[in-house]
Write a structure and sequence with these properties.
The protein is of the alpha/beta class. It is built from 6 helices and 5 strands, in the order H-H-E-H-E-H-E-H-E-E-H. Helix content is 42%, strand content 19%.
Length: 143
């Protein structure tokens, strides 16, 4: 039974190692055509540059390491980053570490995913959403 619970929820030790690794990652910079496309990490200090001034639409995921639904949507954001590499940017903001931008945008719950185009908010999803929902919204602003 313990192994079943551990397989479903992981152990606290694995969680703290995973969280520590996430928190120490260097913010990535967007690069078109990167072989290992993935979400970029945005901070309060890089928000304007990486999101508002982006040349392509941006799907910005506001999350925190302790948030279960955030962990559920993370692989979806990673899949979209690979699928739309060069067409759109998938980005993540850790709200525990970057509260200023979250506050300015009125983030009241996480995960919250906001689609930006030309520096303007185009759409918002609060809570977990499956890939097809996010992809439909992304395709709508790409056309």
């Amino acid at each position: 039974m313990a192994s079943l619970i551990k397989s479903l929820f992981g152990s606290k030790q694995e969680e703290s190692v995973s969280t520590a690794a996430t928190q120490t990652e260097e913010p990535a910079t967007p690069t078109a055509g990167a072989a290992d496309a993935g979400p970029i990490h945005v901070t309060d200090d890089t928000f304007d540059e990486l999101v508002l001034n982006a040349d392509v639409p941006v799907l910005l995921d506001f999350w925190a390491p302790w948030c279960g639904p955030c962990r559920m949507v993370a692989p979806v954001v990673e899949e979209l980053a690979e699928a739309y590499d060069g067409q759109a940017i998938m980005a993540k903001v850790n709200t525990d570490e970057n509260a200023r931008v979250a506050g300015q945008l009125g983030i009241m719950g996480i995960p919250t995913l906001i689609l930006f185009k030309d520096g303007q908010e185009m759409d918002r999803v609060v809570g977990y959403a499956p890939r097809h929902v996010l992809e439909e919204k992304l395709k709508a602003i790409l056309n």
